[in-house]
Specification:
This protein has 308 residues and is α/β, with parallel strands linked by helices. The protein has 13 helices and eleven strands. The model has no long low-confidence stretch (mean pLDDT 94). The structure holds zinc ion (ZN). The site of zinc ion has 4 residues, from loops.
Amino acid sequence: MKIIDLHCDTLYKHIELKTDYSLCCNDGHISEEGLRAGGYMAQCFAIYQPTRITGGDGYSFFIEQCDYFRKFSKECSLIRCAVTGKDIENNYNQGKISAVITVENADFLNNRIERLKEARNRGIRILGLIHNGENCLGFPQSRDKRLDCLPLKDFGKEVIDAINYTDLIADVSHLNYGGFRDVAELSKKPFIATHSGCREVFDHPRNLYDEQIKSIAQSGGVVGVLFYSCFLNGTDSTAAEDIIRHIEHLINVGGEDVAAIGTDFDGMDCEMFISGAGGMQKLAEMLIKKFGYSIAEKICFRNAIRNL
Ligand SMILES: [Zn+2]
């Protein structure tokens, strides 16, 4: 079974460690060997901008990470960069695994709309609007009802409007309730949540309400279910059944075209039923058993590639 994962923090992990940590071989969740063994078609690598880096520094950090990504993905002979679903298919047909660059926290835009175009020119396809802190676009998910209901800022609305006329895709994982509503209202094309879970299954602010799942599904977008136990079940351990429970709920609420995978590999610290990308076929087998082959295909890669 082919696999497409919509979100990991591997790039940031490598940058933070500031060592010669290699993508080809390492002891984290994602390596070239793991992606091969896991049957991957594509892995999305997020450029994550920590909230401590703001203003002009955010922009230079973004450029630095784009350059690092190019270097990092060229190290391994099996991995090739891709931007669109078509690139991913072409790479796959040539026996290559695609690396797709995405953004988590678009604060580097720093109120300058022309930077959207530059992001796209640098190969960004998915733009994660926010992380866990307020930025120039809006506010993150919060247990505080007042904060959670705040709308997107004017610049955030301008970005969503501009995205309608580009081939960028807005990613609403981490975005607050009020911001989500604005994205849903202003988007004229599919938008996605790269790494989220379902509130009805486990009540955590990082997870999506049923109405939000329906709204993403109606737009034609997808939700990548994450593997982090804090959001799946509130313990420090993730079983395959936890992931499957969230996927099943997504399908029941939004239909079989909305479910995808967005692990959050290398961005989480919990026990897991697999040690990383290399074990993904184990999950694929369980998905086939639970939902049948054609729905399992949609979850594992078809729904994701339709959006890319
Ligand atoms: Zn995240």
